[in-house]
Amino acid sequence: MPNKEKKPKYRQNETIIENRELNIWEAMIPVFALVGMLAYNVYVFGDDALSGSNQFILLLGGAVAAIVGFFNKVSYKQMIAEVAENVRSTTGALLILLMVGALSGTWLVSGIIPAMIYYGLQILNPTIFLAACVVICAIISIATGSSWTTAATVGIALIGIGEALGISLGMTAGAVLSGAYFGDKMSPLSDTTNLAPAMAGGDLFSHIRYMTYTTVPTISITLLVFIILGFTVDASGVTDTDTILANIDAAFNINGWLFLVPVVVIFLIVKKAPPLMALLIGTLLGGVFALIFQPDVIATLGGSPSLTFESGYKGILNAITVDTNIATSDPALNDLFSSGGMAGMLGTIWLIVCAMVFGGIMDGIGALERITQSLLSMAKTTFGLFASTVGSCLALNVTASDQYLALVVPGKMFAKAYNDRGLAPENLSRTLEDSGTVTSVLVPWNTCGAYHSGVLGVGVGEYFLYAIFNWLSPFMTLLFAALKIKIKQLATPSASTV
Questions:
Q1: Distance of CA 129 to the CA centre of its chain
Q2: Which of 86, 326, 445, 489 is least buried, going by the fewest C-beta atoms within 10 A?
Q3: How far apart are CA 139 and CA 135, in angstroms?
C-alpha cells in the first residue's frame, strides 16, 4: 500500500523458492534468533535502537539464516539472488522515502505545514480532533489509494496540529494510521487491494465489496473509541492557542494560497500520476511558494540577510536535502518546525535495506515456505484455515519485513486449500488484507512500520496501542470466521466444507 509503488510484475508472478526441505525447527532458528537479539537490543538501547543497532541485528539474523541454508545445501549464490530481488523490489519505496523527506522540507519552509497547523488549531478542537483525524485520512487515502502518501502529507500536518494542541503523539499517529489504512484497504487505486484478489484468484470489486463486512464494523469501533478518547484527553496546549498562533504568524506569512500545493499533489495522485512524479512536483512547487511567500525564511536558510539568487538557491536546496530548523520565540514550535530533508530519511532506508536482506535469505533457504506449510497443516476446520492464514500473514510481516510477501506467499500457499474446501476466493483475499496489509505498520522493522514511524516521527511502540483499526482487523476477520458470518461458498464447490 505504501505510496507504495505498484508491485513489480516480476514479483507478482514469482514462484516460491523450493530447496531441500527444512524441518520446522530449522526454519524457525533464524526467527528465534532475530526476535531474541532484537528484544535484547531494544532493552539496551531503548528508543535509540532504530538509530542503527536494530539494522545490524537484522543483518545478524540474516547471517543465522544463511548458516541454516549452508547446512541444508543452499548455495550462497541463490541466497544473494533472493536478497537482490528483495532489495530491488523496494527501489520505488526507497525513492519515495527520499522524495517525502524533500517534500516535507519545502512544505515546512514555504509555510504549507505551518498554515495547516495554524488553521487547524482554529478549526479542530481537542474533543473532535482524534476522530476527525481518522475521517480526514480515510477520505484522502480512498481518493489516493495510498496510506503512504496520506501519512506523508495530511498525516504530517495532523501530527503537528496534535502536538500543538498538547495531544499525545501516539494517539494522533494511531488515528492517522487507522484512517489511512482503512482508506488504502478499500480503495481500488491501492496496489495491495489489487494484489490480494490477484493472489487469491478473485476479482477486484467483489473483493472490495466482501471486505466491507469486516472493515465497516472495525472502523466503526475505531471511531467510537477515538470519540471517547476525545472527551477524556488532557489537551494542555489549548489554553495557549492564541500565543501559538501569534508565534506562527510572526515566523511565516500565512495565507490560503499555500494550500494550492497540497491540492495539486492530491489531484495528481487521484489522476493516477506516478507517486514519484507527484511528490517531485509537490517538492518543486513548495520551493517556488517558499520563494514567493517566505523570502526572509529562505534568505536566512541560505546564510544571507536578504534574498538573492544564490541565497535562494542555497536555502531551497538545504530545505530539500538536510536538517532545517525555523526559529521562533516558542521552544515547542522550534521542535515542531524542523525537518530532516532527504538526509532525515536515510536511517529508515537503512532499516528497510537490512530488513530485505533478512527476508531475502529466509525466502532463499525455503524457511518462509516451511513456516507457512506448518501453519497450513494445522488447518483442520474452516476456522482453522482462516486462523492459519492470519497467522501466516502475521508471521511473514514479522520475519520477511514486507507486506507484499505477507500477501503473495500465503495467497499462493492457501488458494488451493480454500478452493478444496468450497470457499470462494473472496474469503482468502479479505483475510489477506485484514491480517497482512494492515498489520505491517505494527512491526518496527517492516517496511511499512519503518516508513510511517520515520515519516510521522513517532515510534511504533508509541502508536501501536492507538492504531486500533490495524490490530483490531485480524480479530474481526477471525470473529466472522468463528461465527460463520458471510463465509462465501463457491457456486460449485470442489469439496465439501468442514
A1: 22
A2: 489
A3: 6
Sequence-ordered alpha helix ranges (H) in 46-90: 53-71, 76-89
Closest by CA position to 401, among listed 341, 444, 432: 444
Alpha-carbon distance values, 151 to 2, 175, 241, 448 (Å): 10, 11, 25, 11
Report long-range pairs for 232-240 (Cβ below 8 Å, ≥24 apart). Answer: 233/126, 233/130, 233/167, 233/168, 233/171, 234/166, 235/126, 235/129, 235/165, 235/166, 235/167, 236/166, 237/163, 237/164, 237/165, 237/166, 237/167, 237/332, 238/125, 238/126, 238/165, 238/166
Q: What is the mean pLDDT of residues 175-191?
A: 88
Q: Which of 97, 24, 80 is nearest to 345 (CA)?
A: 97
Joined grid coordinates for residue 270: 487521484
Residues 6+ apart with CB under 8 A from 92: 4, 5, 6, 275, 276
Which is more confidently placed, 375 or 296? 296
| 204 φ, ψ (degrees, to nearest 5) | -60, -55
Q: Does residue 20 have a pLDDT over 90?
A: no
- pLDDT value at position 495? 42
pTM for the predicted model, two decimal places: 0.69
CB-CB contact of 322 with 343 (8 Å) = yes
If you search the block for the grid coordinates 548458516, which residue do you land on? Answer: 67
Beta-bridge mates of residue 184: none
Q: How many residues does the chain have?
A: 498
- Cross-strand pairs, 223: none
116-140: b or e for each residue (b if 16 or more CB lie within 10 Å)? Answer: bbbbbbeebebbebbbbbbbbbbeb
Residue 366's identity, in one-letter code, is G
Evaluate whether 112 touches 259 at the Cβ level (below 8 Å): yes
Best CA proximity match to 212, nearest among 424, 485, 490: 485
Burial of residue 305 (CB within 10 Å: 0-12, 13-18, 19+) is exposed
